[in-house]
Amino acid sequence: MSDPERVTLYYSPQTRATGTRVLLEELDAPYDLHVLNMKASEQREPSYLAVNPLGKVPAIRYGDAFVTEQVAITIYLGDLFSQAGLTPALGDTLRGPYLRWIAYYGSSFEPALMDRFMQREPAPVTQSPYADYDTMLGALEVQLAKGPYLLGERMTAADILWGVAFSWTMMFGIVPKKDVFVRYSGRITSRPAFQRINAADAEMAAQHASAAST
Predict the structure, then answer these.
(1) Which of 19, 26, 158, 200 is the 20 to 30 A CA-CA neighbour of 150?
(2) What is the mean pLDDT of the chain?
(3) Distance CA 93, CA 97 (A)
(4) Sheet arrangement for strand 31-35
(5) How far apart (Å, rounded) are the C-alpha atoms in residues 191 and 22?
(6) CATH class in words for 7-85
(7) Are 20 and 45 in contact (CB under 8 A)?
(8) 95-192 in CATH: which number?
(9) Distances (CA, A) of 159 to 20, 86, 156, 166, 188
(10) CA distances (Å), 94 to each of 61, 98, 118, in order?
């Protein structure tokens, strides 16, 4: 049986779940990994589809609570481990902007990125969830220019979500390597938590690739 006081993170290396694992490290939260080898399609097995019918990671379990969707997980964990100081409390003037930019990730950034990556024509601006790609990214550029973090001087759980996301989207050329994005992402990826998980991910991914080839 799992310890009800520990978070179980359903995980695969070098995926969106990496950001959640980095966040758990930053929160100093007790957690265990339930690793899925996506190269062996373990995320499509019935046992995991019962956790997340979409067969995606990350997902978490804490006690009897299951949470999917990276945005929801970020908010949930930040509030659950609020003693780490990475979440503006209710009543804090930063709480609204904090929720805004976390929601922006799922509602605007990801849809825009997928359209750009798949070379799909976006919906008309009046119907698109993100207006258009340049407008969506421009709003982020303006906000991050106020820096050093998304909400100014204070680092929050939102910065873990965004810092890791900028790292991989710039790596694949989906987001341009503008100075403001590079500097911002570097503040997160240079932190010990990201460095530890990035190294662990590389080792785990190599093991999965080896297992899939045998």
Answers:
(1) 200
(2) 95
(3) 8
(4) 31-35, 7-11, 59-62, 65-68
(5) 10
(6) alpha beta
(7) no
(8) 1.20.1050
(9) 12, 9, 6, 10, 7
(10) 28, 6, 35
Question: CATH 1.20.1050 in the chain, residues?
Answer: 95-192
Domain with CATH 3.40.30.10 in the chain: 7-85
Q: Which whole-number Å values give the CA distances from 161 to 67, 98, 189, in the listed order?
A: 16, 12, 11
Token look-up 């694992």 returns: 21
Which three-class secondary structure state does DSSP give residue 106?
A: helix
Tell me the C-alpha distance between 174 and 41, whole Å. Answer: 26
Token pair 């046992």 is found at 47
AA identity, residue 171: M
Q: Does the structure show a pLDDT above 70 at 1? A: no
Residue corresponding to tokens 């964990």: 77
Instruction: Give the 3-state secondary structure of residue 8.
Output: strand
Report the C-alpha gap between 181 and 131 in whole angstroms. 20
| Averaged pLDDT for residues 126-134 | 93
Q: Which amino acid is at 59?
A: A
